[in-house]
Specification:
Helix content is about 75%, strand content about 0%. The protein has 11 helices and no strands.
């Protein structure tokens, strides 16, 4: 319902009607509509990460994986729950607990991205840098460009994401002669 109608337009009464559960039953598991929504966001992000891990395994080089990651983000832009998240964050008085919950959710990919970058450095594909710093730059690039959803069509967004990864790689790829010496 959050995906179809948005966060604000979804009432607990509708959730009860659609699920066939009483308010008491729902409130037994979730203190509030916000908590239930945060739970759904966490589940959605975990599924996103599982799908990414499957896609990542299909690619050999760090460069291929980074381009696949960009495609994975673009492919997910039509996920209606993502739009409900934007609505939720822009329309709510965000408590410190809600902010911490949202930050926890957004940090889910950090370890995976850092491992991808670290492996690229270990294989000599990427310059030796702080993997954490590069992870933050990658995450900022990919998440920041998601705002293009409101301005461009998906194919144009895909092209710009690819360009972003190319620019990032231009700064962090190991020189070709170093890669061949180490391999």
């Amino acid at each position: 319902m959050f995906s179809q109608k948005g966060y604000n337009a979804t009432s607990m009464e509708e959730v009860c009607r659609v699920t066939g559960r009483s308010k008491g039953s729902i409130y037994y598991h979730f203190k509030s509509k916000e908590e239930m929504f945060m739970y759904l966001i966490k589940l959605n992000n975990e599924e996103w990460m599982e799908a990414w891990m499957a896609k990542e395994a299909a690619h050999e080089t760090t460069q291929e994986k980074l381009f696949a990651l960009a495609d994975h983000y673009v492919d997910d832009m039509n996920n209606p729950l993502s739009h409900a998240v934007n609505e939720f964050m822009s329309s709510q008085v965000v408590t410190e607990d809600m902010l911490n919950d949202m930050l926890e959710v957004t940090r889910l990919p950090y370890k995976t991205y850092e491992q991808l970058i670290t492996r690229g450095m270990e294989r000599g594909e990427l310059k030796k840098e702080s993997p954490t710093d590069v992870m933050y730059v990658l995450n900022g690039l990919i998440n920041g460009m998601s705002m293009l959803y409101y301005e461009k069509d998906l194919e144009e967004i895909r092209r710009i994401y690819k360009k972003g990864i190319e620019i990032l790689l231009a700064g962090i790829e190991a020189p070709a002669e170093k890669m061949t010496e180490e391999n």
